[in-house]
Protein 1
Amino acid sequence: MPTEKEMKQAIQTIQSGGLLVYPTEAVYGLGCDYNNQAAVERLLLLKQRNVSQGLILVASHVQQVLPLIKLSDQNELARALKTWPGHNTWVFKATDRVPTWISGAHGTVAVRVSSHQSVKLLCDTLNQAIVSTSANISGQVTPNEINHIQKEWGTAVDCYLDQPLGQSTQASSIRLASDGKVLR
């Protein structure tokens, strides 16, 4: 578990519009406040990722994602709830509360309710979901050691939460909530 000082720095980083590298179930994530357009644009620039692709949001509890998802039927949420908390991302139709710099060109939002203790503590303290994308340049391998990420990005990232990764060996699955189809 992160120390109180480490967590306070991570929280302040997100709240002040900064970029944070943090551990997830399988890889280090790069995150920020999804409502902060300047922070998201900075993240996308660092990753060399096009805004049209959209970004995943990670939360500590389903209550943090419910205002962001539009359900066609209750089966969509039921599919996701069977896998949460956990290492599973679900793509839902987005509500008007999801900024276009998160939904990209899709009109959808990809969300995950994490089981990783550091992520849960971050999102619980912030009382909201945060951006969760792999801490790498798009299309490249994600380093599984934080010191490699620090060497790559240095001060371009405002805070590195150096905590252990979870036990998963692959990035989260991504599925459509509408029918369960696996996208990744």
Protein 2
Amino acid sequence: MMASDLGNLTLIGMPGAGKSTLGVVLAKRLSLGFVDTDVLIQVNRGKALQQILDEAGYLELRRIEEEEILRLQVERHVIATGGSAVYSAAAMAHLQRLSTIVFLDVAFDEICRRIHNFDSRGIACAPGQSFAELYQERLLLYRRYAEITIDANRGGQEELAERIADQLLA
């Protein structure tokens, strides 16, 4: 079964990898609750991610994300993280204690095909950093923290949820 005694599952990956959408499908399939850390940030701060970025910068958004993740105390949930959660060693250590971490691995070209609102999506990247540079930088971190890696380039949400469930039960 799941590595975590709390029965949680955390999805990590790039924006556009399908963490939020797949998270809901997976939660239904496994009879778990669902939490999206991006939504938590927006609800608790009363602002969209992009607004936080515009007003305070990408490092502040990452700090807020870390804070929200460290406050998480859930059991039997699928947790969809923001794409930049992996920049915080503290947040990732907390998620490792809390859950099994699944990396939704999607190729750069496919991510670019899926994301059309790069400038307004609330993606935490350094000024002047290209999306390709951000992708390469994060890929190393996703791979470092992943307990399970799923090729999420193709297949519907139901199929991907089934593949993840099979991996968890293996």
Protein 3
Amino acid sequence: MGVLIAWMLGSRVQAETITVCLDGSCDHTSIQAAIDAASNGDVIEVSGETYLLEATIDTLGKAVTIRGTVDPVTGEPTTVFDGQGTHRVLQCISNEGSDTVFEHLVVRGGSATG
């Protein structure tokens, strides 16, 4: 029994891949919901669509990778985060570090004051 407990405590928790797409066929339809569900080390894969954001995406201090999709022909990102000119698109204000990564994303339409 002691060996089993020692093995369980010593085994590393494996990072998960969480998927996001607008049509509901993924783990989440909301990027923020995916971040909320994520743990440090997880990868959030966001499908190649335009996400018209109604609120700022906050990484909540989590060391996660948010990865968009790229066009296989052009190599250009096809995942777009659009703030619609009404608010910030992304914020990292909870001591995020170099382990919080954004890849293959187009960020546009953000607005901030102050």
Protein 4
Amino acid sequence: MKFSGAYPNPAINVVYVDYSIPEPINNTSIVITNMLGLKVKEVNLGDRSGKARIAVTDLINGIYFYSLVADDQLLLTRKFIVRR
């Protein structure tokens, strides 16, 4: 499994995450939460590998956490910053 650090970090308009999900996992997404733990965005991943492009223009400046969720299981969490 591959789940890269978000880049660019800090992000201005968009952030990218490289990922590779092994078989037999089916439903995968990246869930973004704010510092209070509230979900602010979710991006479904349609392919087993690739580069997720996540627009952050609707997020205010601050620190966010992004988590890889597969088949309703939290696998990994990292953080990124939005700064304009």
